[in-house]
Design brief:
Layout: E1 9-15, H1 29-35, H2 38-44, E2 48-54, H3 71-88, E3 93-98, H4 104-117, E4 122-127, H5 148-152, E5 173-178, H6 183-189, E6 195-198, H7 199-205, H8 208-220, E7 224-230, H9 252-265, E8 268-274, H10 285-297
Parallel strand pairs: 1-2, 1-3, 3-8, 4-5, 4-7, 5-6, 7-8
Helix pairs in contact: 3-4, 8-9, 9-10
Length: 310
């Protein structure tokens, strides 16, 4: 195991985006992370932490669409987040506190812009029960938190969204934790080389093997790594504060192992913490677990883990 990484400049970005789905509550996520002590946990590890507050997108004039929920507002958030993340990556490690997963359209786009500016490839690790690979046409629900990977990989139909520098290559994406994929997404994914790791594979081989394979590819390519952590990657028995619960998710220990491996690799250059809905939490336990996972990704070791009482 590598020694603890040198101190980083961690920059917290609040993204109270609640436009990606109809169930409200994720707009409270950023303040829940603050209350749960995210900044303090990272400072205790020796990192410098600055909190830039909550972003706000430019106002939109009307936002009606016959099928898609809050399309114009989500596009506005995408522009705002892309600008913020691209700039912040020149200063340190952006940690975007969400907010629903529609925010990743903007955070990944920002990371793409920065990666192009330094002439390095971008890789994306998607820790999620869902693939979020829909297009605007294929989504049955009209909820745009199911579309960000479709957008950043250049799937058709995202007219009016910010232009991509270049689509994220399928070989540069791993989705780990899958256990709820719509038929349209499944059919599209099967035509790609995206690394797809469902919970059965994790049950059979463990979570470390496929993750190590992906991280090796990032290392070999001298890539930048954007990590997008959805609360529903975890089993709802340990992380109930999410509106898209799917039983059979990752355990607490599996979640920490992923984060510890990310820290050991030294590859992570940007991080999303998404889909936390404090309205659905139990005495803050999900927010605290997500903070603990972020701390593991930034160097907290097994022996340093605090005891929690809920």
């Amino acid at each position: 195991m590598k020694e603890r990484a040198m101190a980083q400049n961690c920059i917290l970005i609040g993204a109270p985006l609640d436009s990606g789905k109809r169930r409200r509550g994720c707009l409270m996520g950023p303040d829940a992370y603050r209350t749960a002590g995210l900044a303090e946990a990272l400072e205790d590890l020796g990192h410098t932490v600055s909190d830039r507050g909550n972003l706000r997108p430019d106002p939109v004039d009307g936002d009606s669409h016959p099928r898609l929920y809050k399309l114009a507002e989500t596009i506005a958030w995408t522009r705002t987040l892309a600008d913020a993340v691209a700039q912040t990556m020149t200063e340190g490690l952006p940690i975007t506190m969400g907010g629903d997963h529609a925010l990743a359209a903007g955070t990944v786009l920002g990371a793409m812009r920065y990666a192009r500016s330094v002439d390095r490839p971008l890789f994306v690790l998607w820790l999620d029960a869902h693939s979020d690979f829909h297009t605007l046409e294929s989504t049955d629900s009209g909820n745009l938190h199911g579309t960000p990977l479709g957008y950043v990989t250049g799937r058709p139909g995202f007219d009016g969204w910010p232009d991509l520098p270049a689509p994220v290559a399928h070989d540069n994406i791993a989705i780990i934790g899958l256990r709820s994929v719509d038929p349209a997404e499944r059919d599209a994914l099967q035509q790609t080389t995206i690394q797809r790791v469902d919970m059965r594979e994790i049950d059979e081989t463990g979570i470390a093997t496929p993750l190590a394979k992906f991280l090796s590819r990032v290392t070999e390519a001298n890539g930048l790594l954007h990590v997008s952590l959805d609360v529903d990657f975890l089993d709802p028995s340990v992380a109930p504060a999410v509106g898209t619960t799917v039983p059979g998710g990752a355990t607490v220990r599996e979640g920490h192992l992923v984060m510890e491996m990310l820290h050991d690799s030294g590859l992570m250059t940007s991080l999303d913490l998404v889909e936390l809905n404090p309205f659905l939490d139990e005495r803050g336990r999900t927010a605290q677990l997500m903070v603990d996972l972020a701390a593991s990704a930034l160097g907290r070791r097994v022996f340093d883990r605090p005891t929690r009482a809920y």
